[in-house]
Amino acid sequence: MIHLSSKHLQVLQIIEASPGIKYSDIFEQAKASHGQHWVMTAIKTLLDKGLIYREGNKKHYQFYWTDVPYQVSEEVKHCHRMPDLLIQNALSELTDEQKYYIRHHRKRMTRSQLAKKLGISKLALTLYLDNIPNQIIERGK
């Protein structure tokens, strides 16, 4: 039996009630409580779990329920992510001076210019900017 969160149940019930429904119709029915990105993610999750399948070409998919039994549970177990060593290494390579320079020049220079000036890769700079909360960056001004 496949475990399903109550949030994904809404999308599955829409598909169960209307076999052959198109994505745009699913979105119209579910948009009151969820955004488009969430609906797309829910459909992908249901496809990955084998609860629904789709037919047709890429622009005109129709979705169907697979009649696979499922159980709704509030606690759906998710995989715990291992720490990303690439991110940890990139963040630990920056010196305090480089972090200070980034905080004070990030709005005046492009990421490519900043990375070149600091002698680091653009990836390391992007990882630093994306993984440090904005309040920490803003506080450094």
UniProtKB/TrEMBL annotation:
InterPro entries attached to this UniProt entry: WH-like_DNA-bd_sf, WH_DNA-bd_sf
Family matches, as SUPFAM superfamilies: Winged helix' DNA-binding domain
Descriptive protein name: Uncharacterized protein
Species this protein is from: Paenibacillus thailandensis
Phylogenetic placement of the source organism: Bacteria, Bacillati, Bacillota, Bacilli, Bacillales
